[in-house]
């Protein structure tokens, strides 16, 4: 008669299972990307679009004048293997809804440890006519400053690349629209890019002044007279850093990368927040930004940072849908457990499925 498994046997099996899963995750992370993406249709400018003067020329240092033109709409995004499917969908949505798609320049930031040639080739194969550059981000420049947060995905050094755009992009690029990779636009990005920043503001983003701002920082922060005075004479409101219009010239002059790094250094010594790369931006900019209409960031569609449950749209018109939070639409679609709003992301998915038929 077979012997019943003992408690020791159960624990041994459990540890073996955990080890096997961890090993499988490590192998999967190291495995090269096998996703294949379809080629997107080519999009053309309308007659009203300005011609980029000297777009076929190069400046003295070899930089394309097209890439430096103030008449171009400059879009910055990060690019990595984990989110490349989302990035491809975002790019397609931007081009599809733009009146002047040929005047858009994409600035992709990839980790220095990533396979940059593969990422470049993947973008080129799906968007042969896209104006873009890929920049290498040295993870070590920020990894020493990163503190653990409530979700491991938020601790990726590439999440902090948005703080270094002024250094990474050519100095001739004076204004950019920064976008996360888990969103799609359903409106012309030129409208967002044209946001007026006034005389002094460095960035613009949709503000949410009804959010509980105190919750973004720990009691240690608020109990410190020195730290809490950071927001004196400011009306700080939450804003999501996944959609921002940034004046890079003003950023450079104000050395805002250093200001963000200083707060990250304080966080390393004294835990003053729990959420990744967002709080340093709030500490530096909250209360001093230009508010953009909420239609430009219908965020939170990925649910919270723990369960990623389905959510509904906020009231009002929509120009940009953002799956911030734990749940990503491509993951839920692949698992056959999509949320209703994931159907709005699916039309922009360029993944080549094995059973796809040629049209």
TrEMBL record:
Keyword set, alphabetical order: Glycoprotein, Glycosyltransferase, Membrane, Signal, Signal-anchor, Transferase, Transmembrane, Transmembrane helix
Biological pathway: Glycan metabolism; pectin biosynthesis
Subcellular location: Endomembrane system
Signal peptide segment: 1-24
GO cellular component, one term: Golgi apparatus
One GO MF term attached to the UniProt entry: glycosyltransferase activity
Gene3D superfamilies referenced in this protein's UniProt entry, alphabetically: Spore Coat Polysaccharide Biosynthesis Protein SpsA, Chain A
Pfam family, one: Glyco_transf_8
InterPro entries from the UniProt entry: Glyco_trans_8, Glycosyltrans_8_dom-fam, Nucleotide-diphossugar_trans
This enzyme's EC code(s): 2.4.1.-
Membrane disposition: Single-pass type II membrane protein
Segments crossing the lipid bilayer: none
Family: Belongs to the glycosyltransferase 8 family.
UniProt protein name: Hexosyltransferase
Lineage: Eukaryota, Viridiplantae, Streptophyta, Embryophyta, Tracheophyta
